[in-house]
Amino acid sequence: MSVKIFFDLDGVLRDLSKVMGFEPESWNAKHPETGQSVMEILNGDLTLLRDAPPMPYLSRILEEFKEIKIATVQDLPWRPYTKEWIEKYIPRAEIIWFKDGEEKLEYCTGEHAGILVEDSPMLSDYVNVILIDHPYNRHIRFTNWGKVHVRVHNPDQLMHELRKWL
Ligand SMILES: [Mg+2]
Known about the structure:
Elements: E1 5-7, H1 16-20, H2 38-44, H3 47-51, H4 57-64, E2 69-73, H5 79-89, E3 94-98, H6 101-111, E4 115-118, E5 128-132, E6 148-152, H7 155-163
Parallel strand pairs: 1-2, 1-4, 2-3, 4-5, 5-6
Helix pairs in contact: 4-7
Residues 8, 10-12, 119-120 line the site of magnesium ion (MG).
């Protein structure tokens, strides 16, 4: 079966929580000490985007996939730092930039009939999404049942799901 697999970047491959100094409990979480939002922290120091460590999923994905397609929404000022990060950790990746999550969802799961590995709680549907578990997306209940509608908690579970499509 040749289904295209697209990987979101932040919260899937790159771990921004480590450099922000806290793990967001919700999409609009603020730093417990400074009160800054995620966007305020990152926009205040774009080098955090370059210096963030990888998520534990990345090493497994690198082992199993020759081609890695990254589908990511990044503001224009973020992109040079994000490119540096990707060149360091995933030099063979193909990067596809989007202006918002809906454009990404449509491209990955509509136009290309693929599977999107994603952490965002903001998508309009999750039919062809493998959702990487985080506190901020635990309320997503997969109401639109489709061919892929699964939540994974660790790299083994992700590989188990992805192997069904390889
Ligand atoms: Mg993300």
